[in-house]
């Protein structure tokens, strides 16, 4: 494998910097595909997965690994017809994140065609495979359906634990293994939940002026569960 892969021994040495991407079985295939660039079977590639699964982080890691200006990134919401030539003129790879929030189908159609015609590459990232994206333009739908797509799956316990440790560290919070183990055994099994739990525990720690402990973690998780139940009533 190339040095693009930011490897992580999940059992011993979690990466704590914001520029580190945690590689695990659930995302290893997506990492491998990006490592093989430009040796792809087509000029376009789609990466999809649930919210908070690390799609944007993976794209950022790919971008930072290559020469400045070689890779440009936009979002589905920001993509416009006028922006397409400017995105393609200098970059070798154009990446569109948050494809689910696509605002202009014609812009994506032009971008798909122009990157292919000019020998550029296109990376699309969203919650679901592009073939499932509801678009009205038949020609765009056929192109999206033909785009190779690789999914990021649900995290296992080792990756969730590493994500918790990393997100605590990103906030300059030190927590013990007992806290991580307690939270891991009781939280929803998703990337988004890990982020929400860390945010809530950080806020509670600041509000109560207390270090993060199992006791604080218990109260935060219980409150989040109560809030979820109340939300289901409305």
From TrEMBL:
GO CC, any one term: plasma membrane
In what residue span(s) does the AAA+ ATPase domain sit?
Answer: 41-174
Gene3D superfamilies attached to this UniProt entry? 1.10.8.60, P-loop containing nucleotide triphosphate hydrolases
This entry's Gene Ontology molecular function terms read: DNA replication origin binding
Bilayer-crossing regions: none
Q: What is an example of a Pfam family matching this protein?
A: Hda_lid
Which InterPro entries does the protein's record reference?
AAA+_ATPase (IPR003593), Hda_lid (IPR055199), P-loop_NTPase (IPR027417)
Tell me which Gene Ontology terms the entry assigns under biological process: DNA replication initiation
Its recorded name reads DNA replication protein
Q: Which organism is it from?
A: Magnetospirillum aberrantis SpK
